[in-house]
Design goal:
Strand order of the largest sheet: 1-5-4-3-2
Low-confidence stretches: none
Number of helices: 4
Number of strands: 5
Distance between the termini: 47 Å
Radius of gyration: 15 Å
Shape: globular
Helix content: 25-40%
Structural class: alpha+beta
Mean pLDDT: 96
Length: 139
């Protein structure tokens, strides 16, 4: 594996812990390229850098303020990094129309990030939203 691939994996790992888990907007600003494109935005969400920030800052973290990101695997090839991870948190606020339940949930996410010069330029993701919804609405 090349030094650039190792560096890209480190950038992605740091972004997951510092921004997704920790909310550090400084890390977000330094990591997101202005030309960033999210190829899998949520319905109604912009595919640019503003859409990704909105999802985490206004939808995910308010509903799950104690969010913890666990990285299970990272694979780097060329300028892309694939990460298999999970999010674990307590449901403390409204999430996509589901009022707070107080339940601790965990759901899987896999994403591919394409980087250039240590910055995110493209993103694709698969998140187990059906599994999350099932945990939130189980009787």
């Amino acid at each position: 594996m090349s030094t650039e691939q190792e560096r890209n994996k480190a950038v992605v790992a740091h972004f997951n812990k510092a921004f997704i888990e920790g909310g550090d907007m400084g890390v977000y600003a330094r990591t997101m390229d202005p030309a960033f494109v999210n190829h899998t935005p949520n319905p109604g969400q912009s595919s640019g850098p503003d859409g990704a920030a909105y999802f985490f800052n206004e939808i995910l973290r308010p509903a799950f303020p104690d969010l913890v990101v666990s990285l299970h695997d990272q694979i780097a090839e060329g300028d892309k990094v694939l990460t298999r991870k999970s999010y674990r948190a307590t449901h403390r606020g409204d999430f996509l129309g589901v009022p707070a339940t107080g339940r601790t949930v965990e759901f899987a996410v896999m994403d591919i990030i394409r980087l250039r010069d240590g910055r995110y330029i493209e993103h694709w993701a698969i998140a187990d939203m059906a599994g999350l919804r099932a945990q939130l609405t189980a009787v």
